[in-house]
Amino acid sequence: MYTLITVLLFITCVLLILIVLVQNSKGGGLASNFQSSNQIMGVRKTTDFLEKATWVLAGALLLFSIMGSAFIPRDGKVGGQSAIKDQIENAVDPNQVPSFPASDAKTAAPATTAAPDSTK
Question: Domain coordinates of the chain in residue numbers?
Answer without folding.
Answer: 1-22+41-73
